[in-house]
Structure formats: structure tokens, C-alpha cells
Write a sequence for this structure.
């Protein structure tokens, strides 16, 4: 851990000497390789001790140092997300999705966190959010979102209160029938019943309901919501359901999208899913594109004039291929 702290200190540079947007690692193959290996192979528990040791040795909070320069520096951004404790990291990502772009909300990122995390983790994220920002996540979502996604996301956020307990298959079968009736029994969709059900079942139970639905009726629930009578509610619910049911496909689709935040999305997804389902995401991405995440990373950070791009690429590729 002492070596890790020394490497960070040697490599971080100073804002006064190198400019406010720099977090430039030192030159030399040994330091480059050591830095990449540290960010690839250390886990969140080890990073916690590294941060504590750094503070003791150098009298600074390394997370604050990196946070101040992460906006326009991909290496600083990757380092910051990698070192931050997961629930704190997700709480910050959610906060930025709600308040980071002025009056607009980044719904894709909010859905990504709220719907891909197990209910037990989501409960911890809500607690971290309250502690970190002295604010209630559900209340902030209610305040900031005006679209139909509000009700759906609120149901998901409320459902994590019921995170304990095993999956009940009998209940899942009954709930699947309830969903079918809510969609098929009338001229319009019974949105209230669907929202109520989502708000009362944790993520594991919802996945069991969706599986039961397919077993009973021969098709995915999300396909049933494509009917014209489902309208905008159906479109929005399908996005959320797909993220809950097949998060690897949701992330792969995010990575295929071409927009100004491509680097941020790539860094965030690889780092936050690196010890969870990054290999599944890689397979889903390859199935749609014929290319791998490693190739995507190398294309995005292919800049021989900027050593930091090589280091970011090394970290992300290492996380993608880590066993």
C-alpha cells in the first residue's frame, strides 16, 4: 500500500506547475505499468486503505485532489471513480445525473444506476446520497423529473426497501398473471397496478416475475408493452424493465450510442461493472457490433501524443480482461 501511495504522489503533479487540468503520470515504463496494475487489480477495500495511508503520508485527501481536476482529464476521472467507495460513487453519479446539467436531467444515467443495482445496493446508495448531500433521493427525483419516467423510477426506488428475503416463485407466478391482466384485460393499460406492483417487489423478485411471465404467456413482458394502447408509458417502462432484466444489454446499448459523453460513458461503465458483469457486457457488445470493448477502448483513447490516454486505455482494457 505504501508503494501505491508513493506512485500516486509522484505521478499526480501539481496544479500550479502543470495547470488545473493535469493529472499527468510520470514518464517511464516501470511507473506506467505499475500505475496501470494498481488501478486494475486493487479492490474497493484496498483503495480505502490506500486513501487513508495517502492522507497520513502527505496530509491531503487524494480523492479531493483528483476530483478537482477530473472534469477534462480522463485519467483523473478514471482514477477518481476507481478509488471511490462503490456506494459513494453511485450516489455521486446519481446526483450529477439530476443536478449536473443545470435544469436538464440525464435520464439514461439515472436509469442505469437505479435499475441495474440489486435492491440491497440501491438501499445503500440512497443512504449514502442522504449522508453525502443531506437530501432525499426520492424527493429529488420527484422534483427534477417531469416525464412519465417519474412514476416508474419512483416505484423502483421504493422497491429497494423490500430488499431482504428469498425469491418467492409462487408469488412471482401470481404477479405475472396480475401484469398480464393489467395489460390485456381492458382497452387501456392499468398503469396504477403495474406501478404498484413494481414498488412492492425487490429487484430479484421482479426478475422472477418477468421470467414467470414468459413461461406463462410465451413472450417477454417488455414485448407486450409494445402495443399501441401502452403508449408513452409502455415505451418508458420497456426501457426500465430491460435494464432490470438484462443489464448487460442495456450497458452494451449505451456504449454503442454516439454522443458527446462517449468517453465518460465508457469510463463509467467499465469501472462500475468491472467486478460484476463486464464480461457479459463485452459479449453483448460484440454480438451487436462484431467488435470487442477492448477495441472500443483503444479507438477512443488512440492518441500517441498524450501519455495519459495510453494509461486510461491500459486501465480499462485491464479491467475488461481481468479474471
Amino acid at each position: 500500500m505504501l508503494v501505491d501511495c508513493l506512485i500516486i504522489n509522484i505521478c499526480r503533479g501539481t496544479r500550479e506547475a502543470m495547470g488545473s487540468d493535469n493529472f499527468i503520470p510520470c514518464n517511464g515504463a516501470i511507473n506506467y505499468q505499475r500505475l496501470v496494475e494498481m488501478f486494475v487489480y486493487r479492490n474497493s477495500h484496498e483503495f480505502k486503505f490506500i486513501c487513508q495511508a495517502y492522507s497520513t503520508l502527505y496530509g491531503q485527501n487524494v480523492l479531493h485532489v483528483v476530483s478537482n481536476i477530473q472534469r477534462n482529464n480522463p485519467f483523473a476521472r478514471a482514477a477518481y471513480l476507481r478509488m471511490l467507495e462503490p456506494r459513494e460513487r453511485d450516489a455521486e453519479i446519481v446526483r450529477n445525473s439530476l443536478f449536473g446539467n443545470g435544469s436538464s436531467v440525464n435520464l439514461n444515467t439515472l436509469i442505469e444506476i437505479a435499475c441495474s443495482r440489486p435492491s440491497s445496493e440501491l438501499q445503500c446508495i440512497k443512504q449514502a446520497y442522504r449522508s453525502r448531500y443531506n437530501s432525499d433521493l426520492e424527493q429529488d427525483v420527484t422534483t427534477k423529473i417531469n416525464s412519465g419516467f417519474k412514476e416508474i423510477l419512483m416505484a423502483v426506488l421504493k422497491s429497494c426497501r423490500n430488499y431482504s428475503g428469498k425469491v418467492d416463485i409462487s408469488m412471482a407466478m401470481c404477479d405475472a398473471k396480475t401484469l398480464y391482466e393489467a395489460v390485456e384485460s381492458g382497452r387501456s393499460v392499468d398503469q396504477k397496478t403495474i406501478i404498484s406492483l413494481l414498488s412492492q417487489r425487490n429487484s430479484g423478485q421482479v426478475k422472477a416475475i418477468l421470467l414467470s411471465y414468459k413461461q406463462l404467456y410465451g413472450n417477454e413482458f417488455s414485448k407486450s408493452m409494445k402495443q399501441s394502447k401502452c403508449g408513452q408509458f409502455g415505451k418508458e417502462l420497456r426501457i426500465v424493465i430491460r435494464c432490470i432484466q438484462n443489464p448487460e444489454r442495456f450497458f452494451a446499448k449505451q456504449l454503442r450510442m454516439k454522443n458527446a459523453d462517449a468517453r465518460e460513458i465508457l469510463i463509467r461503465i467499465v469501472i462500475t461493472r468491472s467486478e460484476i458483469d463486464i464480461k457479459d457486457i463485452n459479449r453483448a457488445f460484440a454480438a451487436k457490433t462484431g467488435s470487442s470493448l477492448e477495441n472500443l477502448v483503444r479507438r477512443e483513447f488512440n492518441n500517441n501524443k498524450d501519455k495519459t490516454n495510453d494509461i486510461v486505455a491500459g486501465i480499462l482494457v485491464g479491467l475488461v480482461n481481468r479474471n
